[in-house]
Amino acid sequence: MTTNTTTNPKASTVSTMNATTLTANPANPTAAPSTGAGTGHTETGRIDFAKSAPKVFRALVGFDAAAREGLDPALVELIKIRASHVNHCAYCLYLHTNDARKAGESEDRLHLVAVWREARHFFSEREQAALALTDAVTLIADGGLPDDVYAQAAAQFDEQELAHVLALILTINTWNRVALSTGKLAGTDQRG
Q1: Is the pTM of this model over 0.85?
Q2: What is the pLDDT along the chain (192 residues), one digit of tens a residue?
Q3: What is the rounded CA–CA span in Å between residue 23 and residue 59?
Q4: Residue 108 phi, psi dihedral angles, 5° rounding
Q5: HSE value, Cβ hemisphere, 13 Å, CA-based, for 55
Q6: What's the rounded Cα separation, in Å, for the pair 23 and 62?
Q7: Ordered DSSP codes for the chain
Q8: 53: Cβ–Cβ under 8 A, 6 or more apart, which residues?
């Protein structure tokens, strides 16, 4: 991989810390402050997903952690950032751009993820394949998963890696939908 983050020793620490933090606190460290003790609602008046469905929340945290296994932490954050752009999820975009910065990602690349096709020279072929797959799977209702996009990803990742990339795309799309449905506000997370 030809990015400036693949050899960053802090990158794996940040990803591990985030998964550990989420797993260790099933009361949802990503929840906006509650409007009242025990109400189960956030400051936006919508449910606090982690408090209202703690088993489901913990299952999603576990799915997310399993999906990341064996993947470059920089790639993980690029995928999460791209899906969050496509889904217009400011909450997740805020979290994952900050996580990427903490892992050593450059500001230039963070700014260009939204227009990665026009700035391909900032991203390796492997990253481009993952970003194209992220776009296609995130927008799957618009045109399915084109064979050429799948073939490009399959050429860059072995079967296990490809399965993990797909799982990661599925998890961030789920997290985006949880955040959007429950009215999560960007910048209210304790990690930010």
Answers
A1: no
A2: 333 333 333 333 333 333 333 333 333 334 333 333 445 556 677 888 989 999 999 999 999 999 999 999 999 999 999 999 999 999 999 999 999 999 899 999 999 999 999 999 999 999 999 999 999 999 999 989 999 999 999 999 999 999 999 999 999 999 999 999 998 878 777 654
A3: 10
A4: -55, -50
A5: 0
A6: 7
A7: --STTTT-HHHHHHHHHHHHHHHH-TT-TTPPPBSSTT--BBTTSSB-HHHHSHHHHHHHHHHHHHHHTTS-HHHHHHHHHHHHHHTT-HHHHHHHHHHHHHTT--HHHHHHGGGGGGGGGGS-HHHHHHHHHHHHHHTHHHH---HHHHHHHHHHS-HHHHHHHHHHHHHHHHHHHHHHHTTPPTT-STT-
A8: none
**Among all chains, which residue has been given the structure tokens 């620490």?**
13
Under 8 Å between Cβ of 182 and 46: yes
Identity of the residue numbered 169: I
